[in-house]
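In this section we walk through a basic example: taking a raw amino acid sequence and producing a predicted 3D structure, encoded as discrete structure tokens. The instruction is simple. Fold the sequence below.
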Amino acid sequence: MAAPSGQPTARTKARKRALDLLFAAEARGLSATEMLDQAIAEGEGPGNAYTATLVRGVAAEQPRIDELLATYSEGWTLDRMPAVDRNVLRLGVWELLHAPDVPEHVAISEAMQLVRDLSTDDSPQFVNGILGAIQRDKTKLS
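The resulting token sequence is shown next.
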């Protein structure tokens, strides 16, 4: 969601930076927390405390998040998903299930905006479908 001035909010920027770190970690075969710690050590810190919260949260919950994604992405394995979509979905699921201060519709719309900007034309609908289904079943999943 953009700030009233049309500029991205601090949390929008944090999500984008968290996505960058998750994507880079996966591409380099590192854990997300290793990638975050490396960025901090190199003076390229998360830029926003929420970035670190997202990266550490996704890393801590990744086995469960990936299990949910495998269950809810009918016909798609995690490996078959574009890497951007997979990591955006991880962020979105983490926010839906573990960030009570983030309204559910914000978590979903922010995830859709990330893939709209960075992935395929089909990605927003795909991400919306998975996150929407997880949102509907949230009480059963918590």
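Looking at the output, two observations stand out. The radius of gyration is 14 Å. The mean pLDDT is 92. In the next section we compare this with other chains.
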